[in-house]
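Can you give me the bound-state structure? Components:
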Amino acid sequence: MAEQRTILIVEDSRSLAQTCKLQLEAVGHRMLMAETGKTALELLRDNTVDCVLLDLNLPDMDGMDILREMRQWPHAPATVVTTANAALTVAVEAVRLGAFDYLVKPFAGARLVTTVTNALANVELKREVETFRRTVEHAGFADFIGRSLPMQRVYRTIEAAARSSASVFITGESGTGKELAAHALHSLSPRATRQFVALNCGAIPRDLLESTIFGHVKGAFTGATGDQDGAAARADGGTLFLDELGEMEMGLQTKLLRFIQTGTYERVGEGRSRHADIRFIAATNRDPLDAVREGRLREDLFYRLFVVPIAMPPLRDRGEDILLDARHFLEEFARAEGKDLRSMTPEVEARLMAYSWPGNVRQLQNAIRNMVVLNDGPAVTEAMLPALPEPDQPFRAAAQANGHAHAPIPADFPETAETLVPLAEMERLYIERAIALYDGSIQLAARKLGISPSTIYRKKEGWSV
Amino acid sequence: MPDDMPPAFDLNHIADQWGSPDDDIYRTVLGIFAEEGTKLCVDARAALAEDKRQTLERAAHTMKSAAANVGALHLSRCARALEEAAATATPTELAPLVAQVETAWASVSARIGELSCNG
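Here's the bound-state model for the whole set.
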């Protein structure tokens, strides 16, 4: 069975449309149907379509006009034109406008499946070449660094999905770049000129999350001293990224589902409906189906958002990307800190490659920052490497050395006066490590550290300045 | 029905396109075509009465392709003749062409009914 692709059939005859649908479904493809050109353009805008089977003689427009429209798009689907008119001029014109092939009605099922399979292979190859060309030129894509095969797949999905308004669900371990992926989807989309609004549902107090998303009116709750728009209003025309969706309470999930379905919402304390045109991207670092099974995530909301899935690969599966990332961070932090560190010894590179990076790119970034802050010299040596804890050994039991049996000491704790770092820097390393140890959950990390999540968020904002 | 009427379905064509008239997808599509063909005939008759040429041409065009798809080649040819005349012929010239489509459709529809009765 072929890999599942989404195919749009644009055909006003129901029996002909069903013929194509049933034959292509039989080889495992997902089908969308449009009887008019207008519906076809709407479906193309709202879905990531890989191939279009396009009848040229439509009730409301000439199929050639749809070809002309798609020709302007950067990642247009492969198009196979279907026509009852066997004239060569029609076929030549369709191919000139970008169609991959054409079928003259009536056509046999086997011919249809072969032609569509070839068209899909062609568009896939084009996308691979284009992504590979960009990746090789820039050693990455959007704000990502890396050219490994798992990341090439991610880049291709982002490129293909960016143009549509289809919802995207990103999964991946903490630190794998889920927000970067969401941002890339936005910045490559026609919505790029409007706002990208990111919310971490796990970090915002539950009673404030509804107001944060939808806004509120004066007096809606204690402390609501004036009317305030929420993320929905700010992201109108743009993209709303909801991280840690499984942390959202069920009542609010119901309101979010309604918002996604209808495009309308109400500010807290306001009776009037408002409208917003938003592309939704959700993310979680846990298996979303587990959250559905455990009753923490509404099943209908999950499937509403899980239109285009993107699975971010862990850093340990990205091979040489580890070194590409490490060199990039070394250069960036050395420049920012005014240090001379410019390279890593082969031994250091071997250690970085051998490590499992449970905290992924974020952990690598912190390890490199740690080395740059604490050391100097032309090259990073093994002695400069911070301890790299395995998931079940996050801290070095330095207690024996210092005689503090119950006071674990962070692995990076400086041991000489020369290597002491500012308290704020140590606090940052400590908080970031705590977040990484709790799989990116700021709420859990904050609870363990005895501070509120909002404190961590405030500090994170300060760090990014 | 006249004895010299062409067969409703061209079995060679069905064998080429579908392998066999017993193909599951073919049977499903035939069921859909049974509804669609009836509607297209009604649309064509109404368009002729109201002298709506574009609607008439479209109904004939859709019938031409849909009929050919299931191997109803005589019906498809009648529909093509109507489609080609729809824009320019007089209503008097079009009336027998619409009637030809209706007659061919009646034959196809009856045959579909027999097939569905036979399982």
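A couple of observations. The interface with chain B takes residues 12-16, 18-19, 22-23, 26, 57, 59, 84, 105-109 of chain A (CB under 8 Å). The radius of gyration of chain A is 26 Å.
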